[in-house]
Amino acid sequence: MDSSTTAPPPPPFVDPRSGFCPSTSSFHSLRPPLPLPVAPALDVSTFISSRPHLGTTALIDASTGRRVSFSSLWSFVDALSASLSAMGFRKGHVVLLLSPNSLSFPVVSLAVLSLGAVLTTCNPLNTPREISKQVADSGARLAFVTPELVHKVSDLGLPVVLIDEDGRQSEGGQRVVNTLSEMLRRRPAGSSRAKDVVYQDDTATLLYSSGTTGASKGVISSHRNLIAMVQIVLNRFNLDRLGEQRFVCTVPMYHIYGLAAFATGLLASGATIIILSKFDMHEMLLSIGKYRATYLPLVPPILVAMINNADKIRKGYDLSSLQWVLSGGAPLSKELIEGFAKEFGDGVGIMQGYGLTETAGVGASTDTLEEVRRYGTAGKLSAGMEARVVDPDSGRILGVNQTGELWLRGPTVMKGYFSNPEATTSTLDSDGWLRTGDLCYIDDDGFIFVVDRLKELIKYKGYQVPPAELEALLLTHPLIADSAVIPFPDKEVGQYPIAYVVRKPRSEMSEKEVIEFVAKQVAPYKRIRRVTFIDSIPKNPSGKILRKDLIKLATSKI
């Protein structure tokens, strides 16, 4: 493999403080340049496996304590790749992985990618109908499935490899063509297996967006996209210089957050990934002490739960090894960051990240304690990324401290949406700029502040009301645990804001109190007109509010 790397020179006349370049009307990353391999023929698995590091243990199963060394991991990946090749799988063939987090998840992912085959993952909670739609859309030829989930693909006519970590077999007449353990144990004879040349521009993954603002779409990411993502993750954490680090994997590996950081990114540094098969607060906290975890990646709702149960956590669990909490999915408020520091001490820092499936999970981040204290920000642009802030109505490109839609361009931006040229054209322009759909501004120091989702703005008498602003305000009330604000249709004003509120335990806060609390602090057009109390706010795996579910609930009685 050609290991030479290159980094593009910085553009001229970039403001060293904000990153804004008047000649390009763009913001440029203030991070150190991103070194990327120049060899055209290179797959992301080879890129990861070829990186030198001092790590010994790659994976730990949190519930059983089973460990997989780095040497064993790459031996498994090579064996599975050989078995898939012997079965006739080649570059471009799509393989479905339907599984919760497990030791097998990175093995299957990396083996598929090493062949140049295309990996598509699926939420284990999806219904058979939803899975069938994804299989049909992606053209998947094979599925890796756990015994508990194999019934969900039983009517698809799709060959199945059973992920049988505990030796269980499937029941009934499923088309099980093999088991993972058998494929790892019986490596095909000979070393002359067929393997196509994989290029960086070849498609690597086909991940389906959550569909929070419309129909779910297949996001095409290349090996180049994933290699850039891995390099950004490595540069961000400086893990090569920090000695052995351990990350607790609380987020789902089928999602870009989990897949980018754990199944690929962090393994390249020699870090150990402690895997929870599903999120459980007790198991997560127990694992931190048992395996001396140093990093805890999570989504905001988990952070809120930790703050709300701080007394029990401090008394019942050992968190002394923990150095950093990594939050993604939505920006954290000042109250949450300060609340966490108050409850768990200043010894644990909080880093934030911003990204989309369409950008391989990266885009901006806070990387130091100083940056974290810039409350409410999504961070500074990731290495190698450019941004524009564009007026969504006129298309005019804006400058520092002006609010508009965030556009991103860089080495992690997707190739497009699979078999959906219309959606691709409306999201990705001919110059490679990705319209994120997020309303934001970038301040004098290059920090990005996401105001709201462009499509989620509430239009009250022509005024734009950002739900996120009202939600952040509601969370400052000592009796409110969580909140969501949505538009409610009205013939006279167009839409007005209504709130779903989760009260803290033993709180008897009334609807009138909530409405008055907000009314005292916002302009009249932003006032909340109605409040519904609810046990929990529906959110997707990355912590984003599922507003469409709440809108459906609110409007069902109209």
From TrEMBL:
Protein name per Swiss-Prot or TrEMBL: Uncharacterized protein
Organism the protein comes from: Melastoma candidum
